[in-house]
Amino acid sequence: MVAEAFVVRIPRTMYSEMVAHVTAGYPNEACGLLASKDGRVVKNYPTPNAAEHPDDFSEISPQDLLRIANDIDTYDGEMFAYYHSHPRSEAYPSARDIEWARRNGLYYIIFSLQYHPEPPYARVFSIQADGSVSEGKLELTD
Ligand SMILES: [Zn+2]
C-alpha cells in the first residue's frame, strides 16, 4: 500500500452539499470551489459549469470567480480546492484537468458518478507545476 501524501479535512455537512451539487449536475460535470481560513476548510461555493461542453469538462465563469474571490477577501480566507465531477469516468484528473491544475495550485477533489444512481464517491489530488499527480486522503469531520 502506498502511503497517502496529505490529508484534506472537510466538514461532513459540507461534503453532503457537494454531493448534492454534483448529483444535481448529472449527466454533466458540476463544479465549485472550497475556501479555507487558517488551514481549515470553511466555505463551499457551488457554481454553474461554464464550460463550452459541460458533459466533458468543467469551468467556473470569470464573473463567478471574481464574486467568490471578493467574498473570500471579506474574511481573509484563501481559495483551497477546486472540485468537480466526472459523470462517466473514474475520479482521477484528466490530461486537461492536470493542465489547469498545475497552474492554479489548488487541491483537486474529483467526484465520480460512474455508478449513478449509486451515490458519487470522491478522491483528492495535489498536482504539481511539473504535472505530477499525488493522491491524498479525504477525511470528513463532524
Ligand atoms: Zn475532470
From TrEMBL:
Q: Which UniProt keywords apply?
A: Hydrolase, Metal-binding, Metalloprotease, Protease, Zinc
| Record keyword Protease present | yes
One GO-annotated biological process of the protein = proteolysis
Signal peptide (residue range): none
Q: In which organism is this protein found?
A: Thermogemmatispora tikiterensis
An annotated Gene Ontology molecular function: zinc ion binding
Record has Ribonucleoprotein as a keyword? no
Specify the protein name.
Answer: MPN domain-containing protein
